[in-house]
Design brief:
This protein is mainly alpha-helical. It is built from five helices and three strands; from the N terminus they run αβαααββα. The chain has a three-stranded parallel beta sheet.
Amino acid sequence: MKKLLCAAGLGLALAASAGVQAADKIAVVNVSSIFQQLPQRATVAKQLENEFKGRASELQKMEGDLQTKMQRLQRDGSTMKASDRSRLEKDVMAQRETFSGKAQAFEQDNRRRQTEERNKILSRIQDAVKKVAADDGYDVVIDANAVAYAANAKDITADVLKQVK
């Protein structure tokens, strides 16, 4: 029994020393900071703006036309003939539905493309993190925003940023 306790104690001591040794190979990286500092981010934003510019201006034009008709209906509706008012109301409702559908499709497409481009950039950052970690011999790299305290961890954010640029 005494030998078993001794062996268990020795095993715990070895595990604790291995944990300390592994702690020397931990690094932190601030991915969001790298993402914010990348010049490619602005380029991608401009590219997406140009990609969706035509559809955005079409939606703005539709919205302006719809607002004009709604104001006309509000302003002149009480003095219009019933048939004219009914026709204008139907036209406003149809145009509102069309606008709503196109606006929703635009938002979905825009969000999807932004997500695609963001994921491309994050993938490049992830590849750079892996390369820096492999080159410097780190076993674990943790996002700096996900850790509350890391006394012995080296911050490799600048190295990763250089790698991505």
